[in-house]
Specification:
single chain, 210 residues, mainly beta, five-stranded mixed sheet, binds 2-acetamido-2-deoxy-beta-D-glucopyranose
Length: 210
């Protein structure tokens, strides 16, 4: 049997599924590091399917909840936001939010007044991929560094970079590093996710009705 014209209810459901799937954004940041030195600049961008949805950047810090870029912090530029001088109190969770309240992934940023940061991925690492962590000072990213996970020493890397090949869920955890006679970084959480299953309603629509 050929189904040229799906019933009206089916069309309505599919249209709402389509608008649900297109109403998405993902947050990217530059520099792509979950830790920053105080005084560094930082920019955030909502990569959206539908700019008319009015995506804005928001954050939670220790003393603000859901404040919007431009509202006491940051300089908005379309669906991006620039912060020219990060302060330690700008540490927190950042995300994009549409006018209707849809949200993107969120990103946790730690700003330190200390001498060492751990550069770790801001987005979850896929299982099977390599994870590279860099321990650095403001001026150098190749000093010998000690790396720690969940409080336990892992190893010393002579050039400040530690790569874990083919990560699995067990590599997920709280990482930090230490550079001898300079200092220690704050800790940052690294998450590992499984293979993403993307269910595309548009292709299933085509499969069902063609
Ligand atoms: C921001 O803070 C509010 C209040 O604590 C909380 O409900 C919300 O989940 C937080 N948002 C994120 C993305 O962490
Ligand atoms: C925001 O920062 C980016 C990257 O640093 C820069 O290219 C862009 O011009 C800045 N935008 C504004 C509005 O300042």
């Amino acid at each position: 049997m050929l189904m040229d014209d799906p019933p009206l209810q089916v069309q309505t459901v599919l249209i709402s599924l389509l608008s649900f799937t297109t109403n998405q954004a993902s947050l990217t940041v530059s520099p792509s590091s979950s830790q920053l030195f105080k005084g560094e600049s930082f920019s955030l961008s909502c990569e959206e399917d539908d700019s008319s949805a009015g995506w804005t950047l928001r954050r939670n810090t220790s003393d603000e909840i859901r404040t919007q870029c431009g509202d006491g912090w940051g300089r908005p530029a379309g669906s991006s936001c620039n912060i020219s001088f990060m302060l330690t109190r700008h540490s927190g969770v950042y995300w994009c939010e549409s006018r209707e309240g849809a949200t993107s992934n969120n990103i946790t940023i730690t700003v330190t007044g200390g001498p060492v940061i751990l550069q770790s991925p801001v987005l979850p690492v896929m299982e099977g991929e390599d994870l590279t962590l860099t321990c650095r000072t403001k001026t150098s990213s190749n000093l010998p560094a000690d790396f720690y996970k969940d409080g336990s020493f892992i190893r010393t890397e002579p050039a400040g970079h530690m790569t874990i090949h083919h990560v699995s869920r067990s590599d997920e955890g709280l990482y930090k590093c230490h550079i001898s006679s300079v200092g220690e970084s704050p800790p940052s959480w690294v998450s590992v996710t499984g293979e993403e299953v993307i269910f595309d309603f548009r292709s299933s629509f085509i499969q069902i009705f063609t």
